[in-house]
Design goal:
4-stranded antiparallel β-sheet, single chain, elongated, alpha+beta
């Protein structure tokens, strides 16, 4: 933080900023601190007595819930705000829909300038968010998920909005929000009326609002510079990894010297990334990109040295883009079974019996049986054809988890799959780890399945899986690649855990610093 910029902060804010600005969510916490200090009289010199009251004491009209009539796609005289019009805490007049109904029905819902809109229902993060309406009279109505409040003194609107946006008021509303488990938290009019406020004289209100506006603009400036730095770093990170994936081996030149030079260039690029992990890999998100790059290199034969003495698993393909000894074949040629579960399993559900694997049991490309279902099957059931075995590869073909895969690496006993899962059984179990790796890789089967799955209705059919093009290196090379990938993924996991731990510590420090900076007296 520059000396000039630091001078523009009050001392307490400058000290807090130095401690938390680079922490995750650091600048948003500074914004919260600014609001907290503002509404407790610690941001500018006080010039008069502050009144302790509730929001109800200064309301001229409301709070009143809005109305949500059916919207239409064509233009009408009536525009209703979307909930997103105030989610940011600022009014956004571009977020609206049209309503086609009698004007008399909406008369009491027209908004006027300086109305305060409060979200009475949303996620716990956003319930209670308020914004000041800045549009023209009778230009918008507001929806049922908002409440409208009009104050007796229009001059107090900016300061009251700051108060409603402060951490104390937001926490007050969240703590009183109601709703059944899984439903949208809601606050009622009684909660809004009872919100505690401290109100200074009008002149002091104006000075506070002016100061807050200036400090928030400074936060905007700092946030933009931080974002720019992060973008530069992200581009550097992506460029370094892209250099690894770039294939500089001449595709149409049978020149062993040129190929050897290309291999050395790749080794140099990989060494550069490995030697600069601390500067290139600084966030958990950048580890994700590294994982994808490792998988990409693996399925292209660039992760481990090739051995010309390795026996090809399948007759090599005469393609310039394939490494020596590799073949490209359809997945069906490598399998003895590609099928999916049948319908009608619900009638066989039981508290004991055979495992029943559903789409939700395939998470993060692993088989997770912590909440597995069970089935008791009669002797003749069509679904028994999809009984799961060790070394099978399972792929989710419908639903939110579409394209997610799992390898059945251990003996599983009697188990069956639902209709939302494809079961594939490689002919050669020794090849299963390699094939599973291809199903994890955006540059191979995973990427192809994602292209096929995400249309108007996400989903895959068995033909999509059978026809997948799969690169097949020699079995010995497959083992070397899989072992190398496992080792590098373990490194990525450790690195990601370290970065997330550092972020947590940094975030906790930021929270504690902001809390200490605010103090507990008004």
């Amino acid at each position: 933080m520059s000396r000039t910029m630091q001078d523009r902060f009050p001392d307490v804010l400058a000290n807090a900023f130095e401690a938390v600005s680079d922490a995750p969510n650091g600048i948003p916490k500074i914004r919260e601190l600014i609001l907290d200090l503002a509404v407790r009289g610690k941001l500018v010199p006080q010039s008069g007595e502050w009144r302790e009251l509730t929001l109800e004491d200064i309301i001229a009209d409301g709070p009143k819930n809005g109305w949500s009539p059916r919207t239409v796609e064509y233009q009408t005289e009536i525009r209703t705000l979307s909930l997103s019009a105030t989610t940011s805490g600022r009014f956004d007049g571009t977020k609206f829909k049209y309503v086609d109904c009698d004007l008399g029905r909406v008369e009491k819902y027209w908004l006027c300038p300086n109305d305060i809109l409060i979200q009475r229902a949303n996620s716990m993060e956003y319930v209670g968010v308020s914004a000041v309406y800045l549009g023209d009279p009778r230009s918008f109505i507001y929806p049922d998920l908002m409440m409208r409040v009009r104050l007796k003194e229009k001059e107090s609107v900016p300061f009251v909005w700051l108060s409603l946006s402060s951490p104390t008021s937001r926490d007050y509303m969240r703590e009183r929000a109601t709703g059944t488990s899984g439903s949208m938290p809601k606050i009622n009019q009684k909660v809004v009326r009872s919100i505690p406020l401290f109100l200074p004289p009008i002149a002091e209100q104006k000075r506070i609002v002016t100061k807050v506006d200036a400090l928030m603009a400074l936060c905007d400036e700092l946030e933009a510079k931080q974002s720019e730095r992060q973008t530069v770093h992200l581009n550097l990170h992506k460029a370094s990894l892209a250099c690894l994936s770039a294939d500089r081996r001449p595709a149409d030149v049978e020149d062993s010297g040129a190929c050897l030079l290309a291999d050395r260039e790749f080794a140099d690029r990989w060494r550069h990334v490995a030697d600069n992990f601390d500067t290139l890999i600084t966030t958990p998100e950048s580890v994700t990109t590294l994982r994808q790059t490792i998988l990409d290199l693996a399925v292209r034969g660039k992760l481990v040295p090739q051995d010309p003495n390795d026996e090809p698993a399948i007759s090599p393909t005469d393609r310039d883009d394939m490494p020596n000894g590799w073949a490209m074949v359809q997945y069906v040629g490598l399998t003895e079974l590609v099928t999916s579960g049948s319908r009608g399993w619900k009638e066989y559900y039981s508290s004991t019996g055979a495992l029943f694997i559903r789409a939700q049991n395939i998470k993060h490309d692993l088989l997770d049986l912590t909440d597995a279902a069970y089935v008791q099957l009669p002797g003749k059931v069509e679904g028994k054809r999809a009984r799961v075995q060790q070394h099978d590869i399972l792929v989710t073909i419908t639903g939110a988890n579409v394209t997610i895969t799992a390898l059945v690496s251990e003996p599983i006993g009697e188990a069956y799959i639902s209709q939302h899962i494809a079961l594939t059984r490689p002919k050669d179990p020794k090849m299963t780890p390699w094939l599973h790796l291809c199903f994890l890789t955006p540059a191979s089967a995973r990427g192809r399945l994602q292209q096929l799955a995400y249309g108007d209705k996400p989903g895959l059919n068995l033909a999509n899986i059978r026809e997948l093009p799969i690169p097949v290196p020699p079995i010995a090379e497959q083992k070397r690649i899989v072992a190398k990938v496992d080792a590098l993924m373990a490194l990525c996991n450790a690195l990601e855990a370290k970065l997330r731990s550092a972020q947590t510590v940094s975030a906790d420090l930021a929270t504690a610093t902001v809390s200490m900076s605010s103090g507990d007296d008004r």
